Structure formats: structure tokens, C-alpha cells
Amino acid sequence: MIKAIIFDLDGTLVHTELLKAESYAQAIQILTNGSVTHKMVVDSFGQYVGLPRAGVVNGLFEEYKSPLLEHLNGLDNETVKERIISGRLAIYHEMLNDKKLLSSHFCKYNLELLHRVHNDNFRKVVATMSHLREAEKVIGAMGIHGKLDIVLTSDDIVHGKPHPEIYLKVKELLKIEFHECLVIEDSLNGIKAGLAAGMHVFAVTNHITRSQVHSANILAPLFIIDDPKELINKVYHFIEKNK
User: What is the model's pTM?
Assistant: First the structure.
């Protein structure tokens, strides 16, 4: 029997992955004086979706190491990474403070599932690789904080997704069994984390994550949802079958 629904945040409840991609793209384009274009970073961002911040920055740094070091001559690798982080966070926080922009990125049907499972008295959790400051701002904008039993962020763990630590911690805090947990994710790294924790996982893909999720072939087609309008029916059908 399913007792808890665990939602990823970025790309699942709100399309902040799009905003994150944009913030990294702008920051790196500025740092390289345009030799790394906005489109280049946005196009490559999909492989880093679902990773903690350090994983994203490390990946993008390695990918664009040559032009970054060329234009930030004399700076060591770690300082360059810090410049990427500080630059993109300034851009990203401006985006999060734009209520109209943020609300336009809410995942309508995935949020409807959260409200539905709240009304049906399931336990609800957000387990995200965002840091607490950003996660609380986004959750507050969606007005769902009072409907969540637990919010876990990258600040609460040592190992980020695809490591299962965050989901193992959810299970520990809720004091329920792995098979009683159902995870809603959008990214391949998040899916891997949920499966590694021994939980049921549904993937609600978007245009950034869809190709990777399908090509990885780690979820049966039944559990991959490309049209979010189908999410509630498919999740509730699964819940009914597993009573």
C-alpha cells in the first residue's frame, strides 16, 4: 500500500530547471565574453539535470574549461567555478523574485496531483537538490508549504542524486517501508536515486529530460509520462492496484 508521495521540485513541480539552465547560460556567456554562447550551455544542460549544484558546476566547467580559463586568465579552477556559481546565483535569484515569471513556470498537472494526494491524506514530501534558500522561495511562491510533511534539500544530505541518500532519509523520517513510497521525478538522476532506494518511481518528463529518460531504459513505459495530463489517472491507478 502506498502511504507517501515524494515529489522532486525542480522540473517536477515547477520548471525551474529551465530557469537554472538560463542562469548558467547567461553567467558563462558573460564570463567568456560570448565565446561560449547561450545556446551551447542550454543545449548541454540536460545531462546535468537533477545533480546537486557542485555536480552541475563541475560538469559545465569541464565542458567549457578552455574558454573559461582563457578569459579568466590567472585564476585557478576553483576560483573560476566560484565565479560561475556567484554569477548564475545572482541571475537566478532575480528570476525567483519575479513572481510573474516564476508562476508561469509552475507545473500545473503535477501540482494538481500534490493537492489531490493531500486531500486524500497521503504523506507528502519534497526531496530536492536545490539548496534550502531557493527551495523555500519556490515552495512559498506555490503556496504548498502547509501541505508538505517534510522538505528535504541538498543541505540535508552528503551525497546528491543519483545517490539514493535523500530518499533513504525520507523513509527514515516517515518511518515507513520503501515499497510504501511513490516518487515523482523528471530527471534521469532523480529516477536513479528513487530506484536505488527501492521505491516506486514515476517519471514526468519535459523537453530537457525526455530523451535521456527514454533512452536510459531503466523504467517501464507504464511509469514514464510524457503528457502530464495523464499523471493523476496513472498514479491513482497504480495506487489502487497496490492496495
Answer: 0.86
